[in-house]
Amino acid sequence: MSFSFACVLSQVDSLVEACRALLPKSVDGPRDTPWNTRDVTVITPENARIVFTAAKPFDPASQEARNLEAVGITPPGVGRGDNAERA
After folding, report:
1. How far is the C-alpha of 42 from the C-alpha of 28, rounded, in Å?
2. Please, which residues have CB within 8 angstroms of residue 65's CB and are 6 or more apart in sequence?
3. Which tens digit of pLDDT belongs to each residue from 33-62?
4. Model-level pTM greater than 0.85?
């Protein structure tokens, strides 16, 4: 069983600390993704997989921005519009 939750970037570190305090080996991450999020995976005692995802601030000069642009995703006001044609 797997669940995913969106959270706020400033909450990730305290979430990791709290989970590791209860079950030290239950946490994988945090890790930064190519799509500009920071993810943490927690495995509960019941073996449920919980993924917490937080958006990172967008930096148009970052590697993440280049990764997104490589697959056709550009920030609003840049390039071919606001991505509405892909929605």
Report:
1. 6
2. 36, 58, 59, 75
3. 877 889 999 998 899 999 999 988 888 888
4. no
Structure tokens that stand for 17 in this block: 């600390």
What is the C-alpha to C-alpha distance for residues 40 and 52, in angstroms, rounded to an integer?
5
Residue 84 falls inside a structural domain: no
Residue 48 lies in a domain: yes
Q: Whole domain around residue 8: which residue ranges?
A: 2-75
The answer to whether residue 81 sits within a structural domain is no
In whole angstroms, what is the distance from residue 62 CA to residue 6 CA?
Answer: 22
The answer to whether 84 and 39 have CB atoms below 8 angstroms apart is no
Tokens of 33: 């993704």
